[in-house]
């Protein structure tokens, strides 16, 4: 068994996420999201969808990017 790096649960069905040269172990998607999802620079929500990256900053959508003074940003629909 392995231990979730977020909640510490010792669980027989953990899974690994390999990202940027590191290996992370989680017991559920909620813990994986908590640790891995970027945070919106404006409203501080965790971005679990596509989000918007502008000049190295992450935003949950174009509205938050514009609220932080970024111009020409539109959501893709």
Automatic annotation (TrEMBL):
User: Which superkingdom?
Assistant: Bacteria
Protein known as: Prokaryotic metallothionein
This protein's species is: Streptomyces caeruleatus
């Amino acid at each position: 068994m392995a231990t979730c790096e977020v909640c510490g649960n010792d669980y027989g069905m953990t899974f690994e996420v390999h990202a940027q040269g590191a290996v992370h172990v989680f017991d559920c998607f909620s813990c994986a999201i908590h640790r891995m999802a970027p945070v919106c620079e404006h409203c501080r929500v965790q971005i679990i969808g596509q989000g918007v990256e502008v000049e190295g900053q992450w935003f949950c959508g174009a509205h938050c990017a514009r609220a932080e003074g970024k111009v020409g940003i539109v959501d893709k629909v």
